[in-house]
Write a structure and sequence with these properties.
Number of domains: 2
Number of helices: 4
CATH topology of the largest domain: Topoisomerase I, Chain A, domain 4
Strand order of the largest sheet: 3-4-6-5
Radius of gyration: 21 Å
Largest sheet: 4 strands, antiparallel
Distance between the termini: 44 Å
Strand content: 5-15%
Structural class: alpha+beta
Number of strands: 6
Shape: elongated
Helix content: 55-70%
CATH class of the largest domain: Mainly Alpha
């Protein structure tokens, strides 16, 4: 593969990984500690991720148990979770915080699937923008022969097709997770 194609492939992989990160935030019927990855709370005047100042466990399929390393952080963690608007209500239990995820209704599941599809579509648009950027770069390059330009464009299209196929596969897995009871 050409260096240009490898660079394009690297950017496309980052887009696919970003999609995975976004889809983790969309909850399924089960509790997942990853849903708290981007939740920020006040920690001595700074904003810090909840998972950096506490341990997060899954005692039951629909519950998360958060044990802060310092008991004084409980109020700020509860406030951070409430501010994150996850659709859950954190309950402080002395030295830990318990989050119970309500079962998803059919309508809620459909809405979550729509949200996941929209996120995947945004990733596909980002992939197409990367493709356009690299193909335009190749077309404008004066130091490449026509045959070489055509070959590089075909390689770029091939890695773009692979990335879109990967996005569809990730979306199908997430959709299956959301719709399973």
């Amino acid at each position: 593969m050409d260096d240009i194609t490898l660079e394009c492939q690297s950017r496309l992989q980052k887009t696919v990984e970003a999609l995975r990160g976004e889809l983790v935030l969309i909850r399924t019927g089960r509790a997942s500690p990853a849903i708290l990855d981007r939740v920020q709370c006040d920690y001595y005047g700074d904003k810090i991720a909840v998972n950096q100042i506490s341990s997060i466990t899954v005692p039951e399929p629909r519950q998360l148990l958060i044990k802060p390393y310092d008991r004084n952080d409980i109020k700020s963690i509860v406030a951070g979770i409430a501010a994150a608007n996850l659709g859950v209500n954190p309950v402080s239990e002395g030295d830990c915080i318990r989050i119970t995820f309500p079962p998803l209704t059919e309508d809620t599941r459909r809405e979550l699937v729509k949200k996941a599809k929209a996120t995947a579509e945004n990733s596909k648009v980002a992939v197409r923008n990367v493709r356009r950027e690299y193909i335009d770069f190749v077309k404008e390059a004066d130091d490449m022969t026509e045959d070489y330009q055509k070959r590089v464009q075909e390689e770029i299209q091939k890695v773009v097709d692979e990335a879109i196929e990967k996005i569809d596969q990730i979306l199908a897995e997430k959709e299956k997770d959301i719709l399973s009871i």
